[in-house]
Amino acid sequence: MAVKGKKTHIQEDESVLAEFARRFKDRPLIFIGTIAILVLVIVAFVFLPAVVPGQSGPSELVFGSYDGIPVKYVPNNYFDQQLQYIMEYYRQMTGGEINNRTTALQMWRTAYEETVINTATLKQAKDSGYTPQRDLVDKRITQLPDFQENGIFSITRYRQLRGSDRMNLRTRTGDSMTAEHFAFDLMGLKPPQGEIDFIKSMAERQRTFKMVSFSLYDYPDSEVSAFAAENPGLFRVIQLSRITINSSEREAQQILASIKDGSLSFEDAVSAHSQDSFAGQGGNMGQRMAYELFTEIADGDSREKVLSLARGAYSDVVTASSGWAIYRCDEASRPIDASDASLNSKIKTYLMGSQRGRVENWCRLEAENFAGQVRDSGDFESAVQNRGLSATAIGPLPLNYGQYSLSGGQNNIFGAAALLPSSAISELAEANEQFWTEAFSTPVNTPSAPIVLGFNVVVLYPESETMAEESSLENIEYMYPYQSQNFMQQDMRLQILTSSRFRDRFTESFNRWVWPAQ
Q1: 330 vs 315: CA distance, rounded Å
Q2: Of 3.40.30.10, 1.10.8.100, 3.10.50.40, 3.40.920.10, which CATH number belongs to 237-334?
Q3: Which ranges of 355-447 does DSSP label H, i.e. alpha helix?
């Protein structure tokens, strides 16, 4: 029996690894320091032993390729060094070894993606013509801790390496220096002053707001019923059962013939042949509205024939979305019962998907009527109370379109209060360009035009505006270049990992050679 409130070893492993992976992937350069520091760390690990849990295949494992260059695991190569670094970090965090497949897979995946990034970086640097000078490579090797004796390079230790190992060491060191050079060039790129000035201008004004929200889900039942009355054909109700055959239309025809001649019952045909989610319940689909068959039966004539079946009748073999289907009518179609709340709920679902504009227009009108009342009376709070609404306070906020942040959380270049509180105010999770435009173009103490945010239409009421302190703007001048570099690094990683040059076979290789699935 599990102990309540106590984590299992697997949960602890996954929690630690998830935090590591989040920090490593979200901000790889900030987490380690810089690419240059990462390169030096990896070089320092060149002689750690390789660990391949469960490996029984070849010593060289190919997990994918970038621009035709294999991304492979070989003992002591870059992939292995990344893996050893991650494993060592994990051991320090947990004090234990890897004891479950999920943890191992995440570690290998993280190391693999870093190797893909490194492969692409080296390719780009070499294509640009950069090759480290031989004497600089020699100097870097003499600084490696493995060859130090009393703080001095030991030629004896170096010569203890086999010739092939020395060659491999030179190659790895040269590649590390190439990546380091590329990283320093990347880190040296600064955003233009005009871009910095634009970001500063976003932070110059800060506003506080009150917000009133109108939900699309509040679309009244009277409007739902009116739409159903206007479109009765969409909402005819029929009860059906179904047999789905995936193999061939010919087999479906044979099964239908057997049902009609009485040699096979519909229920037995479902049990023996049907291949869909209704097979376990005798083929019973329950009540269906006409519109629910639109995606299932694309052909309009075939769909209408099914909807026109008499009780107990069978359809012809119908080409359906999941193969070939035979329908049985369990209750003939009838007009919708306006008093059935569950059916009304289905109509509202249809409206939210296929007729959302109609629902949004209703919400916009409600929002416009509220805003008009505020403008006429000049009293926001009274308008809120008179209509039985509630208002939410927001801010102070700068014009932070895009939710700029230095390293996630609350460490924002505009200050801790700059991020929209979307976790607490769900509507703000959909904040868009219209939201920010209305927020900072609407005069103070005036209601904004209605703003569509996801499944809500909101009205903003700017209450106050203040100017940022000069020290805050100076902080942006200082911090934004680092933020810009972070964006650039994230974009570079994303472009590499989503590039058409990248061929990913990680899952196949991991499952085959590293830790086969049980």
Answers
A1: 12
A2: 3.10.50.40
A3: 356-377, 380-386, 433-441
> Can you tell me the distance from the alpha carbon of 271 to that of 278, in angstroms, rounded to the nearest whole number?
10
Q: Which of 96-105, 204-213, 461-470 has the lowest mean pLDDT?
A: 96-105
**Closest C-alpha to 212, from 464, 463, 507, 476:** 463
How many Å apart are CA 122 and CA 130, to the nearest integer?
A: 9
Question: Has residue 325 got a pLDDT over 90?
Answer: yes
Both tokens assigned to 358:
């109609």
Burial class of residue 115 in the structure, from the number of CB atoms within 10 Å of its CB (0-12 exposed, 13-18 middle, 19+ buried): buried
**CATH number, span 205-218+355-467:** 3.10.50
Map tokens 């159903």 to a residue.
228
Model pLDDT for residues 349-378, shown as the tens digit of each residue:
899 989 999 999 999 999 999 999 999 999
pLDDT at 178: 78
Give tens-digit pLDDT for 8-66.
444 444 454 455 445 444 444 333 333 333 333 333 333 333 333 344 445 679 999 99
Instruction: Give the Cα separation of 8 and 21 in Å (integer).
Output: 20
d(CA 181, CA 130): 9
Contact 238, 293 (CB under 8 A): no
C-alpha 195/C-alpha 191 separation (Å) is 6
Tokens of residue 471, six digits: 């020290």
- DSSP character for 314? B
Written in H, E and C, the secondary structure of 52-109 is CCCCCCCCCEEEEEECCEEEEECCCCHHHHHHHHHHHHHHHHHCCCCCCHHHHHHHHH
Residues constituting the chain = 518
Q: 237-334: same fold as 205-218+355-467?
A: yes
Nearest to 334 by CA among 409, 235, 426: 235
209 vs 441: CA distance, rounded Å: 13
| AA identity, residue 340 | D
**Residue of 508 and 339 predicted with greater confidence:** 508
Q: CB neighbours of 373 closer than 8 A, spacing ≥ 6?
A: 383, 386, 387
Contact present, 307 and 234 (Cβ < 8 Å): no
pLDDT at 176: 78
The more confidently predicted of residues 498 and 469 is 498
Residue ranges per structural domain of the chain: 9-189+501-514, 205-218+355-467, 237-334
